[in-house]
Amino acid sequence: MNPDSHAAAAASFLRDAERTGWHDRAIWFVRQKRDIAARSVPEWEELRGLASAIKRHTMSHLALYLEAFERSARRNGVTVHWARDAAEHNDLVLGILRARGARRLVKSKSMLTEECRLNPFLAGNGIEVVETDLGERIVQLAGEEPSHIVMPAIHRKKAEVAALFHRTLGTREDPDPAYLAEAARQHLRGLMASADAAMTGVNFAVAETGAMVVCTNEGNADLGAHLAPVHIASMGLDKVIPRTEHLGVFLRLLARSATGQPVTAYTSHFVRPRPGAELHVVIVDNGRTAQLARDDFRESLHCIRCGACLNTCPVYRRSGGHSYGVTVAGPIGAILAPGFDLAAHASLPFASTLCGSCADVCPVRIDIPRQLYRWRQIAVASGQVSWSKRVSMRLLGATLASASRYERAGRLLRRLLRRVPRLIGHPALDPWSRSRELPVAPEESFREWYRRERRTR
Amino acid sequence: MPARIALFVPCYVDQLYPQVARATLELLERHGLDVDFPASQTCCGQPMANAGAERDALETARSFVKAFAGYDCIVSPSGSCVYHVRHHYDVLEQTDAVRRVRGRVYELCQFLVEVLHVEDPGVAFPHRVGLHVGCHALRGLRLGTSSELGGRPGGPMRALLERVEGIELVGLDRPDECCGFGGVFSVTEAAVSARMGLDRVADHARHGAEVITSGDVSCLMHMEGVIRRQGLPLRVVHVAEILNGAAL
Amino acid sequence: MSRDAILAAARTYQGVPCPLPTVPEFGPASNDALLARFKEVLEQVGGRWVERTAGGDLVGIVRKHYPDATRIVSALEDLPISTVTIGADSTPDQLVRIELAILRGRVGVAENAAVWVDEAQLPHRALPFVAEHCVLLLDPGDLVADMHAAYAALAGGDYGWGAFVSGPSKTADIEQALVIGAQGPRSLLVVFDSSGTSLTGA
Description:
The complex is a heterotrimer of chains A (457), B (248) and C (202). Chain A is an alpha/beta fold and 457 residues long. Chain A has helices spanning 5-14, 17-39, 44-60, 62-75, 86-99, 111-115, 118-124, 134-142, 158-169, 177-193, 220-227, 244-258, 288-293, 308-312, 314-317, 330-340, 342-345, 357-361, 368-381, 387-400, 403-419, 431-435, 446-454, and strands at 79-83, 104-107, 128-131, 197-200, 204-206, 212-216, 230-236, 240-241, 266-270, 278-284. Chain A folds into three domains: 5-10 and 300-381, no CATH class; 41-286, Rossmann fold; 402-454, no CATH class. A six-stranded parallel β-sheet of chain A has the order 1-10-7-4-2-3, sandwiched between helices. Chain B has two domains: 5-115, no CATH class; 128-243, 3-Layer(aba) Sandwich (Rossmann fold), CATH 3.40.50. The longest helix of chain B has 17 residues, at 190-206. The model of chain B has no long low-confidence stretch (mean pLDDT 96). Chain C starts with a helix and ends in a 9-residue tail after the last strand. The model of chain C is unreliable at 198-202 (pLDDT under 50). The chains are: A alpha/beta (457), B alpha/beta (248), C alpha/beta (202). At the A-C interface, helix 2, helix 3, helix 4, helix 8 and helix 10 of A face helix 1, helix 4, helix 5, helix 6 and strand 8 of C. Strand 9 of chain A pairs antiparallel with strand 8 of chain C.
């Protein structure tokens, strides 16, 4: 991946100006709903503070809480598995399925399983994977990745979904969302009723009781889990929280931040397996303890995957989730991904103006801008940016450190701007001028005027 | 003993928008202050630091501290530069001089309201004006309340402008969305930057603004570039110029 | 072993201990305010409500709102109108054919119209999800203001599975158009019923 990958993908996205406007407005609307919901809770800021502190405490006692969760879960009859990385997670899941002779797996939305690239792995091993979240099913049928962690198909227009369903499900090509949702209901119901196994993510794992909380609006996680003989829950180890009472804090923040709803339609607490059924949990590291080790970035592990930062980010809304090239896109993605692979994702921390909006909507008060800034320093220091950029920064640094050098450079710049108002030619030479006029250069700088008019001391 | 006040002029203001620095100087002097302009200043280092080259900006930052260490207040017509000094100079060894400078650098409107306790700027500007506070001033320095947090937007810039005679501050669809400048972002992510600038300017135009004002020249420079390319009937004027009694 | 490696890494890198905050109690409200708020939010999330007056006919309410339902499962002992028998060993095919499920909720949360149901009240966990329509009985005396109070009211309970249910199932995954009735029930009716024994003894 080259250091400019987000910029290139974003430029491509933006070529369809009208579609970009549609995408931007659709997601801004969700930000507005979030604002209304947040303002309806007088203690909103206090809840954010509590959530942040609970996560901070939990991460600083992570081993303790993971062990406690495991103890509680095992006591409940849940089988607990541990996976160091994505490959191990996938192998474990396949192992569970094979042990039951399972051929069809229904899945509710889980960003962790996307991160682990579970679906193609299972498909390659003869398992039929059916995504049951409508947005996930849409992108699955379309053969693409989700573009948003909460609204996977937000980049798709209803006419496109109609065409997709017509092609794959045999529906009539009708863009009415109610018709399409009904078609999906009928199509998925039968699949869920005949599944050999069900998989869900975990929004919160309670150490005290071993409960695994799964939040959905569609009811698909529960339908899958309660009808299948095996339920596998995949969780990142950052999902553990100490006590049941803490769910009150997080659940009051989660849906309001994500979609502006007071709560999701279903908040399901899985504690013990259904009599006669199996309940498994796979606890996954996959780079999380490595992020924990990074003092500057461990706070990124507090994320509860609400998507509010994506919705508020002016860059995300105008470039789309796919331009980030990672499972979890947007501002939080830009501080998580470089931890996984700095070389591949060095462009992400630069895909931001550091406007700070994300930090203000984050329900757990992650200081995303500070971490974007720090990742930039690391990216440059470890040579992840282009040679020309590094050289120009060094030159700039040398120039600006001396008043006389600075003044000379300033005069030169102004002369250049006056002579060549627009650097016509290859757009790569002057990206600014592709859509903006350059500033008009004055004859005299402020300090030249000051020296002339005010006689320096 | 009267306080020693220094004027900090951001590098791009010095070179490209000197009228903003002049207006700032004159404005402070009209409030009875004796203001120094230390000639050894160059830049606060933000353009490099935001681009990830914090280390390349260290000398510049040290020069900045040296130029301004002897002053009681350092005032600048730039929220983003002031933010950088206050928050990102933690990378320097925290000598007395560094701590002093970090604690005594003020954005212009913040200085006028919080230190000089100015309430009525005593000027007129009878125009429809869109206020773009600027992200570093708003969410960085908390000079106002961001729309994400809810409540009245407030802030010293708005407080002063609201008292300007004849001014009409227009409402916006998105009160404080970023304009898209972002330093080197404006070049490295030019497509997104330009689109953000376009949308921001369009919001102002849609609500009948004649003028867009801000406490940050960087934002104004970017929006002005869009306005001129699009041929829109809008002008950009820095807050310092309005408060200094500028006429269009 | 992966478990040991992961826990060792966590122990090594978890850093300086940070204190656990105390979660305070937030705004109480009078009982009247709770009911009005719950109703308001329930309507906002696409649910409906009805009040069963003292001595009121529950069967009549059900028939009125769901006149065409023929495959009914009632989980209420005092409403034996099930036309289908559901139990722990019911097959998925049997379960997905249920048209109407009638259940009792144990706690109702005014801030978000969520109602707690758990397996103790259900012949099968799938019942609140698999039925085409769902009726929840709730004693207004079991209303609490917020989620903190809800978890406090449920504390000490032992359930293998439970859920907060807020309104009918829904999705907005297609161009953000809200569609009521996604995978779970297409409608949810809350019947406020004071005739049973309130969980909170109110």
